[in-house]
Amino acid sequence: MKRHLAALLLAGTALATPALALDLTSMSEAERAAFRDEVRAYLLENPEVIMEAVAVLEERQAASQVAQDAELVKANAPDLFADENSWVGGNPEGDVTMVEFIDYRCGYCRRAHDEVAQLINSDGDIRFIIKEFPILGEASLISSQFAIATRLVEGDAAYKQVADALIKLKADPEKSVLQAMADSLGLDGPAIIAKMDSGQVNDIIAENRALGQRLNISGTPTFVMDDMVLRGYMPLAQMQDITAQLRAE
To answer: pLDDT tens digit string along 189-198?
Structure first.
């Protein structure tokens, strides 16, 4: 009974009103030592209390993160959803917008690619935006430069073809490899390659990186769906569930 009371008193220090809160400063050293011993003994006998407290803390932190992400999305909405430098696919008039920050050399981006495509194609009412976000080294940067240059030189349809090819490319993106890719797709490889290291291309990448930094994005894939920031790979079923939840709100 005394140990149960000690645990309740411990909770009271954090949760009680000021009038009921336990004032440890009014205790003598002996009383404080006895109190600490009782609390420790109670927790050792009932360790599940610690796990319950951790679960509550994690729930509160998750809720706080969701709220913070929503504010960040709101503050950066024009750059996320109305950026003329990003490819837009799916249904341009869709009732749900999905933005993906992608790195072509990222294993999880590659794993997600077909499932994202399946979601977009099977749903039919999702506006899909790709943000080039190369963060895994030189090969990532070159791949994004090639994709962006393709869009600037050849247009949106060619960009999508190249993006789909780059996400599956196993070889290093050397110029000869990129030229062969352009040739296989009927694109002007020399013009695209000449455009890759231009200020226009690098400015787009820099803007995407700055946007990612403002949104606290440090890995790929990262998805933004309406006002939610979803970090990491998600299986198709989870993406479908989130889409349904957004429509139900």
So the answer is: 999 999 999 9
